[in-house]
Amino acid sequence: MATTTTETLEFPSAKWFQALADAADTDAERYRQLGMVECTLVLQVGDAAYRLTFEGFGCTGVSDWDGSEEGVDCHVSASAEDWRELIEHIQARGRADIHHTLNSLVLAGERFHLTGDEQLGIDTFYRYNATFQAFIEEAAKIPTRFG
Amino acid sequence: MTTTVSEPQTPSPTEYADQISLRPYAQAVRKGDFDLTWFNAEPGGGIWGQWGIKAEPSERGITLMDVDRASGLYPGPHAPPGVTPRGAGNEPGLGPRDWDLNDKHELWGENLVTLYEEATSRQWRATEDIDWHLLEELPPDLERATCQFNTFLTMGEYLVNDVLAPWIPAFNTYYHEIKLFLATQLMDEARHTEVFRKRTFANGGGLGMTLDLGNALAAIGATKISSGDGPGGEPGKNPLFSTWDHVSYAIHVVFEGAILSMFRFGEYLGKTDLDKQIFRMVMQDEARHVAYGTMHLKYLLDNSPDADAQLERLNDLATASEMFFLDLFFMHPATVESCSILAGDGLDGIEKGLEIYKMAYRKMREEYLLRTESAGLNRREACMLPPDLPF
């Protein structure tokens, strides 16, 4: 069983996002209750980007994104500064407030952007939204150093 | 002179017990002579289906996809007339049964099986899975706007069920996937009605004003059922609900697509963690319905034997649907104003909020156009939803 890291990890990095996946694994029952997910997201943090694969009930793969759109459903992108603000906010509060949920941020479209090659791929962001929101809020458990 | 026709009398329980004890099967069983037709039938011989199939469970358990893979019983383009589940045999002498929808292109979507499994996996309970303790008291104008928005959504949800439910018996059981998926959708819509109703009564407010949307859809549903229009009857007078293709397009693609955008907007507008949570959960359900509608539209256009005529009919339908829902939905004062008050953080901010409402409308319209385009129906030039709302 995965455990939550006590090591301070640099953001952004694949290792940091893997730590989110590990943190989610320690709360597997919650994610099983939220339900199955079949989706691949690319999270773009400024110039860096990471590919996260969700299968079954959790995140099963994290890697640096190689630029390929094959199998990718959608992208969530923002500047490194805006991601940092989101993560620091979650870490201070324990979870996102009403202004910092993923859907709110991408719907406003000012700082965070939701894009994809096909609308059906983009729609997966809505289909699994509660899982993704819980997943990003795992950031509260990750000691973080901003690069 | 009138003639009285005597109807057979219902026997008393004792008489009935005596009658069934005289039946040949009862007499044979009493002698130890069992029928066992089903037991002795050769697999694949007509009475029994297959034998020796072992679907392997995955981490999630055994899915319908696992069963199809193990059995090889994927749905073909045409269903046989009858009540036989796909892959089963038939009792000797079992007669045919007519269904309204017997061809795969009329109902299928390539994501239908996975969406059903997703739906069953992602069910939730409005009573227990919502953190009701997170509700906070809101200023009266925001609570009133929240309740009006939820009232509108309450009506929309259960009226979708009124339209969809009568269609379930229209599908041949050979295509069990569509029957099962629609059953999950009915549960989803019921839960949405439930959660919005609970929200309006949970924070010092209550249900607000009923809109024409409700009356219009209710009238259509009542007419359809009572007159025999729709499934099992003549095509309905309202083209939005006369055939399954039309129902699915009007409900799954246009209506639910718009509601999905409303739910996303509702999450954005939510003034408490609880309101955010509710809209995240309903958003997920609605996105499944839209995903089916989009992929069914694509399958229909890719496989219909009269695709050109189908495209023409669907374009006509889209024109009617877009106007119907724009009028009853995005242009209704109670919807425009409740959303604008929430977006503007109060009645004083209604004009600022209106701009945000218009932004959400533009996103809804664009997502609708992208969905129809991906399915093979290009509505960009003909769309009756204007690029911007006229205020």
Which CATH architecture of the domain at 104-375 in chain B would you pick? Orthogonal Bundle
- The chain-level structural class of chain A is alpha/beta
User: What is the annotated CATH architecture of chain A?
Assistant: 2-Layer Sandwich
Fraction of helical residues of chain B: 55-70%
Q: Element order, helices and strands of chain A? A: EHHEEEEHHEHHE
The global form of chain B is: globular
Taken in chain order, the helices and strands of chain B follow as HHHHHHHHHHHHH
Question: Structural class, from helix and strand content of chain B?
Answer: mainly alpha
**CATH topology heading of the domain at 104-375 in chain B:** Ribonucleotide Reductase, subunit A
Low-confidence stretches of chain B: 220-229, 232-236
Distance between the termini of chain A: 29 Å
Question: Roughly what percent helix of chain A?
Answer: 25-40%
Provide the β-strand percentage band of chain B. Answer: under 5%
CATH fold description of chain A:
Nonspecific Lipid-transfer Protein, Chain A
Evaluate the radius of gyration of chain B.
Answer: 26 Å
Which CATH class of the domain at 104-375 in chain B applies here? Mainly Alpha
Helix-strand layout with pairing:
The complex is a heterodimer of chains A (147) and B (391).
Chain A: E1 9-11, H1 14-25, H2 28-34, E2 39-45, E3 48-55, E4 58-64, E5 74-78, H3 80-93, H4 102-108, E6 113-115, H5 119-127, H6 129-136, E7 144-146
Parallel strand pairs in A: 1-7, 2-5
Antiparallel strand pairs in A: 2-3, 3-4, 5-6
Chain B: H1 13-21, H2 24-30, H3 37-40, H4 64-71, H5 112-121, H6 140-164, H7 176-200, H8 212-227, H9 244-269, H10 273-303, H11 307-330, H12 333-343, H13 350-375
Helix pairs in contact in B: 5-7, 5-10, 6-7, 6-8, 6-12, 7-10, 9-10, 9-11, 9-13, 10-11, 10-13, 12-13
Any overview of this molecule?
Chain A has a single domain (9-140), classed as SCP2 sterol-binding domain (Nonspecific Lipid-transfer Protein, Chain A). Chain A is built from 6 helices and 7 strands. Chain A has helices at 14-25, 28-34, 80-93, 102-108, 119-127, 129-136, and strands at 9-11, 39-45, 48-55, 58-64, 74-78, 113-115, 144-146. Chain A has a 5-stranded mixed sheet with strand order 4-3-2-5-6. In chain A, strands 1-7 form a two-stranded parallel ribbon. Chain A is globular. Chain B is built from 13 helices and no strands. Chain B starts with 12 loop residues before the first helix and ends in a 16-residue tail after the last helix. Chain B has helices at 13-21, 24-30, 37-40, 64-71, 112-121, 140-164, 176-200, 212-227, 244-269, 273-303, 307-330, 333-343, 350-375. Chain B has a domain at 104-375: Ribonucleotide Reductase, subunit A. Chain B is mostly helical and 391 residues long. In chain B, helix 6 (140-164) packs antiparallel against helix 7 (176-200), helix 6 (140-164) crosses helix 12 (333-343) and helix 9 (244-269) runs antiparallel to helix 13. The interface between A and B is medium-sized, with 28 and 40 residues.
